[in-house]
Amino acid sequence: MSFVSALGYIVFRGPIEAWRTFGTDVLGLQLAASDDPDTLLFKNDERAWRIAVEAGEPAGPKSVVALGMEVRSPGDLEVLAGNLRSLGVDFREDEKLAARRGVRKLISFADVAGNTVEAYYGATQAKERFVSPRGLTFVAGDMGQGDFGVGHAFMFVADPAKTARFYQDVLGFRLSDTIDLGPQAAQFLHCNPRHHSMAFGAIPGVPPGIGHLMLEVSSLEDVGRTMDLVQKQGIAMRMSIGEHTNDRMTSFYVVTPSGFDIEYGFNGRVIDDDAWTVGHYDAASIWGHHFQAPSPAAGA
């Protein structure tokens, strides 16, 4: 059974004044109202917020505070809690945190790699329309085929297959495909029509934690204009523009003020579970995605 319907939000730490400019002027996200002066909230659709940045020093892969996994209803959250209980996964309901996140109910637990997961239902819908300060439209929220969520997260973990199995068995994710990426195949999982909402890989020498968060925009022109803006402002890029083998996303990778990457892309594949066949790829990209910095790749 699929318990999770979307990667609904993500929370991480970073220098908030740098993020205030980077999030709006570069990424084109809309700044949302926040009751906490030490937390920035960003929108990329009609939800009250999708990305939260809590004040802190740049921590690179260790920046993630929580991965917000949305379920569709109170009943689904209860069923998920029962599944966690039956599998021996410790969790706690947190009313104060639910209020802070703007959701009706929330349970928190750690995945097998130690990442904090917040499963919830009833996210607040904003009354005001989403308006990008750069005039962009993001592929997020309800795209007519269900909620696509904020984007996707690629996480470095010690054992990608074991972590992927946790997300499949515990949260109901489904395997999209795998890629030869380092000595262990990277695992790509979906919970809605987006090709993958979570992915897990391991590269020797790369510490565990987030490699990148993918944000998808609605046109290739928007990707190109954003890349030009990044280069004009001298912001570090991790990888040049290219096209991935599995999700066919055309994208580039930019380094955030927190030290991990944003994959900024267009034209990701969508999955119809009734017709989808799991595949395996021997490379992450068809063309491009050349490293622009000495640190290793941020995944696919």
Task: Set down the secondary structure blueprint.
Blueprint: E1 6-14, H1 16-26, E2 30-32, E3 39-43, E4 51-55, E5 64-70, H2 74-86, E6 92-93, H3 95-101, E7 105-110, E8 116-121, E9 152-156, H4 160-171, E10 174-180, E11 185-190, E12 198-201, E13 209-217, H5 220-232, E14 237-244, E15 250-255, E16 261-266, E17 279-281, E18 285-288
Description:
- This protein has 300 residues and is an alpha+beta fold.
- A ten-stranded mixed β-sheet has the order 17-10-11-12-9-13-16-15-14-18. It has an eight-stranded mixed β-sheet with strand order 2-3-4-1-5-8-7-6, sandwiched between helices.
- A hairpin with a 5-residue loop joins β14 (237-244) and β15 (250-255).
- It contains five helices and 18 strands.
- The protein has helices at residues 16-26, 74-86, 95-101, 160-171, 220-232, and strands spanning 6-14, 30-32, 39-43, 51-55, 64-70, 92-93, 105-110, 116-121, 152-156, 174-180, 185-190, 198-201, 209-217, 237-244, 250-255, 261-266, 279-281, 285-288.
Strand arrangement within the widest β-sheet reads 17-10-11-12-9-13-16-15-14-18
Note the gap between the termini: 26 Å
Helix content: 10-25%
Q: Mind summarizing the main beta sheet?
A: 10 strands, mixed
Overall pLDDT score:
95
Low-confidence stretches: 295-299
The rough form would be described as globular
Rg, alpha carbons: 18 Å
- What is the number of E strands? 18
SSE string, helix = H, strand = E? Answer: EHEEEEHEHEEEHEEEEHEEEEE
Helices and strands: which structural class?
A: alpha+beta
